[in-house]
């Protein structure tokens, strides 16, 4: 598989990132946020997004002098063969765990909210089969399809949010800062891993980019959009249900589209579900492709076509292990968010320091401000 075949543009890049990160508004991430932040939960994505500027900025700076290398190649260059490989392996394990946990969550959403009589293994298998098909096409094709469907996905989301705001109660967001500014700052810092896809995804997309300036611009655009989008979505859930109810719901977005109506039209979840499902397939196609690339980089495997189905099967069996995925995976994701938040912040800082020590920036005539 030649991963350097062709180049990706800013539209495709931004579209994939918006789907990868933005789709978290439709899983159990809002519950993880509001459980501790309460009615100030809608501020957390904004605070996390602002804090994420630091690691993302440093990561882009490092890539600016290693434009032909992916994340793992840079890590080995900066940290040496053994330490670099160890860091790569840790990222691979975390990526695999994150992919498996999210796949379990989305399978649980489909099974509990829409197809309650369908066996879980069948839903999981269909999700993995479609993801294998998309992953084998590569990031370029995933990006192209993402750009084609992103408008319709966001229109569907926009309509659902507008309808939820019209039925919501603005008094539910008071007091604005919940239990205090210090508490929400703490929560915002501990949840920056909401945006960890910026680390893993852009780490393998840079060598495919047409223009590095467009890459930097696209990264800024995507981070701003997903931060606002997640914040507005959580705000709509809190106004519609109150934070106490949101923290007890499994999947607030899907409860929202079941609750709202448009005039005499009810059951409008049948309108929103197909767009969410398409975005889900694209999200997991990208995840599967990236996790396979990670493994291939560590063990120096050049052709990864046969690895993709194997990883899909592994994720399927790992995801089927928990007997109560709704509660088990929720607890796992909460712990994973806290751990990976520290990693997401520290790793780019250390990479930038090592690049500075090694003199990687000395030949660069201009480092554009991010």
Question: What is shown here, in short?
Answer:
The chain contains 15 helices and no strands.
Report on this structure:
This protein has 370 residues and is mainly α. It has one domain (10-357): Amino acid/polyamine transporter I (Up-down Bundle). Helices cover 74% and strands 0% of the residues. The protein contains 15 helices and no strands. It is globular and about 60 Å long. Residues 1-5 and 365-370 have low confidence and may be disordered.
User: What does the overall shape look like?
Assistant: globular
**Total DSSP helices:** 15
User: Helix fraction?
Assistant: over 70%
Q: Quick one: CATH class?
A: Mainly Alpha
Regions with pLDDT < 50 over 5+ consecutive residues? 1-5, 365-370
Assembly state here? single chain
Terminal CA distance reads 33 Å
CATH hierarchy: architecture: Up-down Bundle
The number of strands is: 0
The overall number of domains is 1
The CATH superfamily title: Amino acid/polyamine transporter I
What string gives the helices and strands in order?
Answer: HHHHHHHHHHHHHHH
Secondary structure category? mainly alpha
Instruction: Output mean pLDDT.
Output: 88
Strand count, sense and barrel status of the largest sheet are: none
Tags for this model:
370 residues; mainly alpha; Amino acid/polyamine transporter I; 15 helices; disordered N terminus
List the SSEs and their pairings.
Blueprint: H1 10-22, H2 29-37, H3 44-64, H4 71-79, H5 81-114, H6 120-137, H7 139-167, H8 181-190, H9 197-205, H10 212-241, H11 243-246, H12 252-259, H13 269-298, H14 307-320, H15 325-358
Helix pairs in contact: 1-7, 1-9, 1-10, 3-8, 3-10, 3-15, 4-5, 5-6, 5-13, 5-14, 5-15, 6-13, 6-14, 7-10, 7-13, 13-14
